[in-house]
Amino acid sequence: MDESFSPATIAVLFGGGLALFLYGIRMMSSGLKKASGERMRRLISKVTGNSFYGMLAGAFATMVVQSSSTIIATLVGLVQSRLMTSTQSLAVILGAEIGTTAMAQLVAFKLHDYALIIFAAGFVLNALGKSESLRFTGEALSGFGLLFFGLKVMSEAVAPLESYAPFLSLLRYLDNPLLGVAAGMALTALMHSSAAFIGIIITLALQGALTLEAGIALLLGANIGTCITGVQASTGMQRAAKRVALAQVLFNLTGVLIFLPFIPQFAEFIRIISPSAEGKGAERFALEVPRQIANAHSLLNIFMAFFILPFLVPFDRLLCRILPDDPEEIRLIPAVWYLKESALSTPVLALGYVKAEVARMGSIAAKMVHASLYPFINGDPGQDVVFPKLSVLKGMDMREEKLDFLENRISDYLITISRSSLSEGQSKEVFALMNIVKELESIGDVIESVEGKLLQKKRGVELDLSQAGKDELIEIHTMVCLEIEQLADALKQMDVLKAGALPEGDERFKRLVEQAETAHLKRVFMLPEAEATHHIHMELIYLLEQIHHYCKSVAQSIVNAVES
Fold first, then answer.
1. What's the predicted TM-score (pTM) here?
2. How far apart are CA 47 and CA 31, in angstroms?
3. Can you state the percent helix, strand and coil of the chain, rounding each to 5?
4. Strand, helix or coil at 39?
5. Residues 312 and 355 reside in one and the same domain
6. Residue 321: what are its φ and ψ, rounded to 5°?
7. Is the distance from CB of 435 to CB of 506 less than 8 angstroms?
8. Domain range spanning residue 528?
9. Are residues 283 and 362 in the same domain?
10. Over pLDDT 90: what percentage of the chain?
11. What does the pLDDT look like over 140-171, one tens digit per residue?
12. Is the CB of residue 444 less than 8 Å from the CB of residue 365?
């Protein structure tokens, strides 16, 4: 080893180069996501039953955002939110594994000498671009240049190690395929980036320090190690989402089991199909191996994708056996219970199904309202009344998702009904039901938005609400809970008498609010510590007022629907 380079100097240079490389990838990915990331997400979410097109969409999306981990995490989210089934996601995963090989191909082009020119061109485009699209493209181009500059710094850092005996001895261990796979898996999982680790592999190959066989073993390990992001993204999610992460692990593990025994033969095949370089000995070795490693990575993932593609249906069944749906969990998933497409040709029957689903919405909203004050009155997370495994907050989040889902589905169903030949009364009924659905969903939205902000503020305030303040809030909350229960009961039979009686308590509600606000302001003037929780207290009163007004609005819509 060159004496002018101490191990500490090499470590600093290599670490700095790696940081530049990772930051370049992040910058390039960020620019590409801003330019087209949302379109990629929409593209993935629209994939239907065609597995081949799903695979192409996954490959294209991964090439654009330059991160298979991002795509897998996106798939987990789409499956969790029921915008895609776990079966549909399998083909996209295969495509993502193909798309991730694009980075290795780019790195193998050895554009190190042009890195700063590329970075400067991207910087100018980002700074002077008049449209957002140009600025985002400039950001991506700057990241592209930066990652190559980081690669150049890493390459120069490891150059003195070519003749360093301890380092060469360490690399010889990688000739053992099992050790190579283990090292690739561990380091990629640690870095959370297969692209970064592949960059390191190619850097070593550029210095002639790594054989193709060792590089292939490391690639196999990297394919497994990159699954850590998907596994983490699925933690705490439903089993359908967890199956997405499990699918990626099994796909890549299958690839290791197939290729591991045949690494020497595979390496020889890669040498045959890869271009040869001029030169001799170590110089030629350093020129050829980086491209061979990139080609091996691409061919390996493409082969595995097309090998597994015809077996996606039985593979999905296997995943469901390993991680079967939990009946309790299924109840947490938003779904319609009563709406039937077959009833749309008979408006009277279809409207009956809508009313049953709307009544269910009212029951869900009522449970949210009952739980809404709990986090501010009690110091523990509590338990959901129906699902004890969930905390009170998670139970509210789950029901808000259900209300959003049902609002969309019922509204679409009502719009379809409205296109039929309806009587004047039925038309008014459809309009009234649309309003009811919208107002019930708004109750969930207001609870979610107000509580999200207030709970954050509550965590930053050391003082708790005063006991007197809690008692006042509980009194108002109790009245609102009675109203929403009365409303839910009225919705079950579309009972105009029960709905019409609801506004009768409006004056009492106003008095309770006025008394609570007056008493609270007196405490603020007399007790300085009450000022710290003033905003939280007033916002909670405002939240309960909004729920009260939505209840009145729904009650009026029930009257309108029945009287039509």
1. 0.60
2. 24
3. 85, 0, 15
4. helix
5. no
6. -75, -40
7. no
8. 342-563
9. no
10. 16
11. 888 878 877 887 787 777 666 655 556 556 66
12. yes
